[in-house]
Model the fold of this input.
Amino acid sequence: MGFLERQVDVHSLAGRPPLAVVRVVLKPAAADDVPPVRDLHARSFATLARSHHRKNEMAAQLALIRSPDYAGELLGANLALAVDGGGRIVATGGWQPMPSRPGTARIRKIFVEPALARQGLGRLMVSDAEARARRSGFNDFYVRANLNAVPLYQALGYREIAEGLMALDGGVSLPVVFMEKTRAMAKPPGDQP
Ligand SMILES: CC(C)(COP(=O)(O)OP(=O)(O)OC[C@H]1O[C@@H](n2cnc3c(N)ncnc32)[C@H](O)[C@@H]1OP(=O)(O)O)[C@@H](O)C(=O)NCCC(=O)NCCS
Done:
């Protein structure tokens, strides 16, 4: 739904001199992509989220990424892949309609190759998912952010709604932050109906 295949020089989005030039093409995910996407998500979470979680939380989230249900989640999330010049998937990002919030897209599955963190890939994948959702008529955004991802969403204009817990197998809960970015937030004070 609304995918554009295109090439993006990621460093240019970070607005600073590049540590490395990462040239990626964005394309839609297909069933064949599930195994390498799982590998990327596991690697990404294990490395980039480690400092925010206890060992049992890490293990439970990694088990979820390896679970059969996760494939369905990936394929139901309008997932885009960022693929580098060598054909390697280096980031993902998707969105889904929220039945409980008409007109709102839930941003999902933003994961970045750890070696390429802080190069603008996360920003790229969220912005791409938002743009695709907008083209489908969804103009407000919501995310259940992992703790390590909160600064990314803040940088992209999201605000915190509440802290929460995401239930995982084995009675483990992952702390998360629910965040949103709505059209109402963009309006100046006093401009509300
Ligand atoms: C969260 C994540 C997607 C960020 O990806 P990224 O490519 O490193 O982020 P970007 O380079 O696009 O960062 C954009 C801006 O977000 C903010 N930001 C991102 N990561 C940050 C961090 N660890 N600490 C502080 N600010 C951060 C900064 O303002 C940054 O801009 P700057 O680099 O010019 O200062 C990545 O760390 C990741 O994949 N984490 C593990 C998987 C995960 O938990 N995903 C989230 C699911 S909700």
